[in-house]
Amino acid sequence: MKRSIWRHPFFLTGFIFIAVLLIASFAYSFLWGDEVRKLYYISVDSVPVESAPISPKWEFPFGTDPLGLDMLGKVIIGAKYTIIAALAIGFLRVFISLPLSFVLGVYFQKYRKYYNGTVDSFHYIPFSILAYFLLYPVLWEPFEGFSTSMPERFFIEITVLTVLIVPIISSLLGNEIAHVYKSEFILSAQVMGAGRFRIILKHILPAIREKLVILFGQQVMQTLIVFIHLGLLKLFLGGTDVDYQLVHDPPKSMTMEWSGLIGDTFRYLQGAPWVPLTPILFFAATMFAVALMMEGYIQATSGYSYYGKRIKEKVSRVHEEEDRKIKNGDFTRV
């Protein structure tokens, strides 16, 4: 039975988690700017017993970094940059790919196989590596300093990460739209005199609405994963601050966005694991929240479980392969 997505516990849980993070991030920056609490050492009876990086405590639930800065405060400050950039890239990928996919699936069906054959080659190119080489001249600070402002670097990075994946998404959506276009209800609409534009708006678009929501969620999660990869390669969202002094500090993030917090502190994974694991935990929690919203939306609008359906399909494929192996093994050569 269909019901409002705002009453579905899965969708509501994921939405509240992301909304709370964004509201907390903007409120923190509005009240305290980018100032983060510091704790250099803990003393008992005037005797230092622990120095930065300090392990998680009640007042500092995620501990501090090697400079004594509160990890929770840094994650909250960077949440707005990371989440909004991922949502914007995911939305732009689907929004730009949709009209291209309609052209491929409705108007130029005879040329779709050539387009798909060309786009298939992109699947063999590591997306994160390609993005790294394209974004390195923009995000890595040169010796003389950046020639672009931070909003310009954000715009360029969002544009590059969007445009690189548009051909693949348009190919996938074009195949889906071409399949829907051959359905019986589309043929009935054509017999009744409906034009292609009306068929797109009134029939095809409602038919693929759920797939668009799923695709949007998948692209948001893929973007977050790409952020992690670029962070490990020291290429941070908004720009990498590079110190060129004789005794230089490691490259660091200029906005405290989460990929920068991972790349800047990953070397402490063994000595102070809470430092890099804190942003990794928030990355994972955000992706899980997006997955909950996808699942809640599908269950509320269609009445079935998206992930449950995928699991059943995988199980059925495994059983089919096992049955095929058994049938092939029934014949022995004599």
UniProtKB/TrEMBL annotation:
Protein name: ABC transporter permease subunit
InterPro entries per UniProt: MetI-like, MetI-like_sf
Pfam families membership: BPD_transp_1
Topology of this chain in the membrane: Multi-pass membrane protein
Transmembrane segments: 12-31, 81-109, 121-139, 154-173, 212-237, 274-294
Keyword Signal in annotation: no
Chain ranges of the ABC transmembrane type-1 domain: 83-294
Keyword Manganese set for record: no
GO BP annotations, alphabetical order: transmembrane transport
Highest taxon, organism lineage: Bacteria
One cellular component (GO) term of this entry: plasma membrane
Organism: Bacillus salacetis
Keywords: Membrane, Transmembrane, Transmembrane helix, Transport
PROSITE patterns: ABC_TM1
Compartment(s): Cell membrane; Membrane
Family under the similarity heading: Belongs to the binding-protein-dependent transport system permease family.
